[in-house]
Amino acid sequence: MTATAPAAGPAAPGGDPATDPAKGPADGRAAGLPPGSSPWQLARRELRRRPAVRVSLAVVLLFVLMAVTAPWLGALGGWSPDTFDKSAVDPYLGGLPIGPLGGISSEHWLGVEPVTGRDLFARVVHGAQVSLLIAFAATAIVVLAGTAAGIAAGYFGGRTDAVLSRLMDLTMSFPSLIFMIAMMSVAKDVNRIVLMTAVIGLFGWPGVARVVRGQTLSLKHREYVDAARVGGSSPWRILTRDILPGVAGPVIAYTTLLIPGMISTEAALSYLGVGVRPPTPSWGQMIAESVAFYETDPMYFLIPSTFLFLAVLAFTLLGDALRDILDPRGGRT
Length: 333
Known about the structure:
This protein is mostly helical.
């Protein structure tokens, strides 16, 4: 006579996070946290465990602080980003900086620009303000538009899904870089920062919308969503109270990965001469101007390039870590 295994007890409402792939290890048991731990507690614990992520987070916070306090940092250095210092360059050597390493001294902490003598420290910190402002604003537009479109397409389905999905396909198939260059070249008497933010955001939302649509499709038939629907909750309440919290993790992870791409796009457009116009400083613009001096004054090229590289690398590493923690299935291939 063979013994039979006892029947499993009823599942808890909403599924077991330890076995439900859509919820992931939200209770923290997989990471050694007490039952009931939130995804944010798990994220904080995982971020503390990874030294590279801690360094990346510190660099990100440093750049954000530098951008916010750019006017005060420039004043601390004693120079504005537009002030010429002819005494710091040698007119008999084509305007090259006087002194070693591009004119680095106690007066000019990162040296000066050739010919003009403008202080590189002041221009770099103000360039961080411009680059991060455009990147964050464009990312906000992309995330808000993409999340709204993705939730609407996934939840309502039918004609709404068909129209929004075709709009996503059309936007993603459009040659966005060519359009950006054309728009930035034609529009002359407009605020360049506002225009760049709008144009970059216009072509970035379909990626977020597709991620959110897929998550919404997997959530809209869950028991708690069906219960809310049967209980008479309005679609708006269901979307904001039940669906949106379920897609928040992947959206936050995707948002962090979007920012370095936005920084690179702004730098590329400024490098091509269709982005931020002088005298407003920008990292891409500084790199473009430094190309003519990379042999005679390599520090002029290295300083803005290093800042751009560190910013993109830090945001990328932080975004990869958040994706692995908040959206583990999204990082699997």
